[in-house]
Amino acid sequence: MAEYTKPIPEPDPDSAPFWEGAKEGKLMLPRCVKCNRVHWYPRLICPHCHSMDIEWIEGSGEGWIHTFAVQHRAFGGWAEETPFVTAYIDLKEGDRMFTVLRGVDPNKPEEIKCGAPVKVEFEKASDDVSIAFWRAV
């Protein structure tokens, strides 16, 4: 494995199920048992109904581009990748996730379309952490 030079998140107890799933190539998402809504980012209280009854489900790994931006400046290991595209993804299960978008040309932003389908993929950053990215399909 080539050395991963970008920042590596430090999992915490609230997000541990997400990171465990990512290591196995699974998109794990928190869902409120009371209102049945998925929310992103992981937290102890549902942002929709304020219940603390949260469970984790395996997501489909499918979504759509909500919005995007081309990044021309970056730091922390990302500088050598500029330009690259970041995006908010509308998850099939609901809510949105921020990501680095792959499978698009940052030099041709006119070809990137909001509403275009994407699929999740995972990149191993360390023995303990795999990072979720989204790829245009």
Describe the sheet with the most strands.
5 strands, mixed, barrel
Strand content: 35-45%
State the end-to-end distance: 25 Å
Q: How big is the Rg? A: 16 Å
CATH architecture: Beta Barrel
Number of strands: 7
What would your notes on this structure say?
With 137 residues, this protein is mostly beta strands. The chain has a single domain, classed as OB fold (Dihydrolipoamide Acetyltransferase, E2P) (Beta Barrel), CATH 2.40.50. Helices cover 6% and strands 36% of the residues. It contains one helix and seven strands, in the order αβββββββ. The protein has one helix spanning 16-23, and strands at 28-32, 54-58, 62-71, 84-91, 96-102, 117-124, 130-136. A five-stranded mixed barrel has the order 3-4-5-7-6. It has a two-stranded antiparallel sheet with strand order 1-2. β6 and β7 (130-136) form a beta hairpin. The chain is globular and about 45 Å long. The model has no long low-confidence stretch (mean pLDDT 95).
